[in-house]
Amino acid sequence: MTSIATTLAAAAGRRRAVRSGVGATRPGLAWAVPATVFFSLFAIVPLVLVAVLSFTGWNGIGSPKWIGLSNWTALWHDPVMLKSLWLSTLLTTLGVVIQTPISILLGVWAAGHQRNRAVLSAIYFVPLLLSVTAVSVLWRALLDPNFGVPSDAGWLFGNGNLLGTQSGSIGVLAFVGAWQWTPLHTLIYQGGARAVPQVLYQAAAIDGAGTVRQFFHITLPQLRNTIITSMVLMVVGGLTTFDTVLILTQGGPGTDTTISAYYMYQQGFLSFDFGGASAIALVLVVVATLISLVMVRLTGYDRMNSTAEGL
Question: CA angle, 95 as apex, 94 and 99 as ends, to 5°?
Fold first, then answer.
């Protein structure tokens, strides 16, 4: 009996040691070298070069000329830049407001066991297989006021020129972005919903909670960290949107849809002011980083200790 008790105690001690990490073999720093080199070459080094270029005047030919804070001063007093930041924030907010509730509902539904769920989910995820350029060209053709859907549905679209006004253009950009990217976030929520322990729903059903009550009191709280992750992706993606604006509106009418990323393209590749374009790019990086950090800190995501959802 004594030997059996000793063996069991030793086994329990080994299990506690493994759980606490004592004696466990951890990968060495060498495993991080490839990722570190890749990130440095394709993220850190370009970011440093952009920061240096923002203090220079350069038209893409010859050597950059150091001009100090001239680009930043001009940017601060540029009304188009200030307007572009507001438009970027507006489109990003619309994307979050539209895509979040739809993707949560669809993701929770797709995580279930309904009939034909797999087939319908596969069809719904088709937009993820298309490039942003292809999607933009598709909707540009569909919304053409002369040959597209608006020409045959004047009772709904008026004169049919949805891209001829600021409100119409912003609405189209928000809709097209939601049409393409909501399936991605639906997939994220589907994975999060499937990770929720079924025992919680079983206990709630025993207590008499219906489907709606289970959704608001179990599913949503358990998806808290998934929601934060999805929203951070939406914010960063919204602030860096470019292809859709380039193909659908070209920043128009006028500058009514000239968001910061498109304005950066105009300054660099149309006006050949790569110094000013670099300053705009750096502003976008800082704004996106700050917003992401604020979201993470305010939601408590950085203080999550458990590996289980919502804990």
Answer: 120
